[in-house]
């Protein structure tokens, strides 16, 4: 059923647009001005209204009378108020007194917004975990299962950013406030619901809320036997899609990538939840759970794609040997694509294999773009494309995809941290601090975030605090040598070669037991002035397909050896000699 609001839902959707110009985005939903990297810009309601009038009429002459009528309706104010508003906007936008970039003054006639403006039309939808009524037992994972199903089905909707399960999953629980969740997630719409089991019967109640006003625009109650769970999910998805866009959900575009087996579904959801942890034990447990799901239902395409994703997490968190990781990941991806040729997460897996293992830059970009065409809300594909572009000098486009990644999954500490790393490399320390602070607020024990903070502080010449954060990262990330290598490099740069060599010795001892990425050893040798040893390790890194080689072009770790013939030859073998200067992350 549809809950009537003050306006037809399709009219509301048509209004949900914003405008992008220069380094700014004008968000008309939340009535605010943002920088492109997401930082808010303070703007009074009057100034926002004045800017909106000008931007909506970009390129046109707007006379003073029009501005007075639209910004101060019914009030008697003088021309001086308009002049002050224009001067205030120019100050905030960093425009000059003549309006060379944004607001041009046409003497005795009015004003014209001269910057190029593009419209942004994607609304953000959060599907919260469903409340389980009458039971505290989460063994069947009905709460996250209902949300996960809806997210997968609704992600194909054009013009809608469906937030990732990892972010919305933080707002489970019976006492949650859906509108507060929407505010924290910066979502325009929120699906809130509950599910109750009585014997073999399920009752599902759901509503779609328009977050800024707190108005319910659609709601439904569905009663079915528990064997009809998947029919319930289809009906809910169709109802929400109809309410949001006024069109029928294009189910024909959704591949049969789920499972109809309840036990396999529960294991799949448990695996996805567990594998988000950053420790080796979390990844191993995630692999075990998803393999159990596939033993029950070997045709579960999303589980195969998830298995590939979990295996790839071992590259960053446990220093796994790349050929072992990609042998398992690629096999799982191919099974997923055989079952569901349009599955976005599987195409993202193809992209990562081509990017990080085959060093096939154009092939990787093509795969990531195929994934995003299938599902623009697939955060892993968005991040993969951003990573590729940023390491190859396509910085503006890369940061745009990074912001889009964070838009889809706003409460992922990983995306915030990785973006911070690239911001440090780009010299934008203020925004890097904002991203790291968000990451640590969400996940205080994330080693990657502490490593990023350490590198940021060192870049600001705050050596003592920076080294302390790197040591904290070493403690929190015992399964990877990456933070220890960063620490050794900076100790060497500070002249403490003995401490750097002690860390190098520790890493070499570890290499007798498990795989250690040769790039971690090479960066320490380079910092110590041991060029031959560094180049030997880089040659070995190429043979082993070390994933850190994709950042070779822009990584300052290689400055001491960048002009060495062997280094130049390695750049040529990788094909990085033909790309622009890139950035690096943590």
Concise summary:
The protein is an alpha+beta fold.
Report on the architecture of this protein:
By secondary structure, this protein is an alpha+beta fold. Among the domains are: 17-120, Winged helix-like DNA-binding domain superfamily/Winged helix DNA-binding domain (Arc Repressor Mutant, subunit A); 123-254, Rossmann fold, CATH 3.40.50.10070. 54% of the residues lie in helices and 12% in strands. It has helices at 9-15, 45-56, 64-71, 79-93, 142-154, 165-168, 178-185, 229-245, 262-274, 280-296, 301-317, 322-339, 344-356, 361-374, 379-391, 395-408, 413-426, 429-442, 447-459, 463-476, 482-493, 497-511, 518-527, 531-544, 565-574; strands spanning 18-21, 24-27, 32-35, 40-41, 61-63, 103-106, 110-113, 118-120, 123-127, 131-133, 160-162, 189-198, 201-210, 215-225. Strands 9, 10, 11, 12, 13 and 14 form a 6-stranded mixed β-sheet that branches. Strands 4-3-2-1-8 form a 5-stranded antiparallel β-sheet, with helices on one face. Helix 19 packs antiparallel against helix 20 (463-476). The longest helix has 18 residues, at 322-339. The chain is globular, with a radius of gyration of 26 Å. The two termini are 49 Å apart.
